[in-house]
Amino acid sequence: MSTLSTRELSLHERFSITRRNCGFPHGLTFIFSYSSESSVPTYTQLCSRVEELQKHFPLLWARVIDSKTKNPKFQARQRPWRGEEIVSQATYTVKDDKDLEMERILYESSAGMDKLDDQLDPLWKISILRPQQEEQDSTGSRSYITVAGMHELVDGRGLMNLSLAVVDPGLDISQLPYETIDTIPLLEDTISLKPSLTHLLPVVLRAIVLPRLPYFIQNVFKEITPWPANLIKARPTESPFDLSLLAISPDLVSGLKKAGKSHNVPALHATLQIAYLVAIWAKFENELNPFVLGMATPLAERNPKLSHAYCTANYVSSYSETIVPSSSKSFWQTASELSTTLRSDAGRAAARYSMGMLAYIPDGEQDPSKKETNRPTGWESFFLQGAEGPTPYSIALNMSNLGYIKLPQGCDDAVWGQMASPFGPAFAVDVLGHEAGLKFVTIWRDGSAIDRTQVKEVETVFKKVLERLADEDWNDLTFGGLVA
């Protein structure tokens, strides 16, 4: 009997396995919307494309073995999945508003990924969703296709590539590369993630050394804790996940791009991230003094020139910094500084160092008696200890922006989102742009640091800030002026 091919997991992929071991598997989902039934790819077509894609990308039919050890691996199964094992058909309840439909479908898809058995089930799923029978004749009823994957299998950009390969009839799968499991490189094998000492030592001191010192010594070295600090109503591990969808129009997007370019912010992302940060500040600034916000930005590292996988595996780094908002702070100066940093070699290096810090999590010797618990290795203990401590959030806002896609043939809208991790930020925002505008999916652990009412209030302020930034007649472009 031949030996089944294997591949080690990268640092970030192991982090996703850690989340699963802790009881919080992390799924990502793309949704494509169709207003015409005749435009929806058929069940047979999707099954056929699934089987063809697996010939190119064997991680799509792999499973993770040794998941409760310090050395988990992908291993090929005996055979690829049949199309009907990946693709399903279901119904949804029609709502008055398309965005509400997509929000609900996204929530149910993300929650549904929690129920997958990672040893018996595929790590990715596709669903065709149509209205319930009695609603199929409703005016304006729509169909949707969801493509969902576990984060250990795909990152955001990987799922985007996979989703478009699944649903876009104009994409010729035969022209995509062929890969083998044991030759798919890890991110850290192709890009140096090893932190410099100047990056490493402060983080080790703050995250690992200080918590073990007497309290009176900790106080000497502790920095100001960013919001929400200890203003926690419930542990994130004990709070349910929730999400909210916000859409902005193509005209507003055009106005924002024009305004950004005139203020040395050539890419839209920095404008969006600082605008959302301003909205958080406006809502919560009175809760702490001084008020400091941490923000993070995932950066795509997937690069075919480095033989990275086309749509599977994780190739991402994460840039983070803190900001002290104030009413007089210039919006465009702040956005320009972020934009410049994200495009710089120094910013990219800092993002890679942050991902490389995963290698320094205390792992210790594995205790066999803990193998079947939610703390089988040092990683699970480390992250659970942080999430269950008095200040579980160091980042207020993480904005994961996949940029602009061209909608597939027959599709008139699309959105992506993911599960809210208890080891993540207070607000996580997933962004996607296309011909129909921009879609923002905010995810959070409801009732921990924030709740749905507060998220909706932040979204309202965020949209007002965007509208004022795009308004050529609005003159007060300070943080305070934009939310007045």
UniProtKB/TrEMBL annotation:
Question: Which superkingdom heads the taxonomic lineage of this protein's source?
Answer: Eukaryota
InterPro entries in the record: Alcohol_O-acetyltransferase
From the Swiss-Prot or TrEMBL record, give the protein name: Alcohol acetyltransferase
Which species does the entry assign this protein to? Naematelia encephala
Specify the taxonomic lineage: Eukaryota, Fungi, Dikarya, Basidiomycota, Agaricomycotina
